[in-house]
Amino acid sequence: MEVLTTKINKKKLVHIDYLYYKQKNVKIGIRWVCVHKGLCDGSVTTDDGINFVLKFGDHHHKGNTDLINTERAKCIMKNAAKQNYDIPSRIFALNVIPLSNESRQLIPKEDSMKRTLRR
Ligand SMILES: [Zn+2]
């Protein structure tokens, strides 16, 4: 399991090949729902420390590693930009070039991504 932090307090969970949004805290831990919510009922409930899956609701589709790699790259780029490690075009180049073609197609166009990174 892997947690991606998109913004302050905005988390996404990667579990097997699926990506989830945090939905809410529940009595036994945290409930996460599939990013394709509305089309899919997939969900997981983890403990508060996000170490164990306590409940799992099945998906109506296959997992998508390309989507996960894209999300991970976007998070890394945003965090790198926030910490001013590098200029946006270098952050973009370093993180997008290693992705597969499929993942790269899911990344926003370079100009709009760079605009996001400058914020
Ligand atoms: Zn799903």
From TrEMBL:
The keyword Metal-binding applies. It comes from the Eukaryota. One of its GO terms (molecular function) is zinc ion binding. Residues 4-61 form the FLYWCH-type domain. InterPro entries: Znf_FLYWCH. Keywords: Metal-binding, Zinc, Zinc-finger. It holds the Pfam family FLYWCH. The keyword Zinc applies. This is FLYWCH-type domain-containing protein. It comes from Macrosiphum euphorbiae (potato aphid). The lineage of its organism: Eukaryota, Metazoa, Ecdysozoa, Arthropoda, Hexapoda.
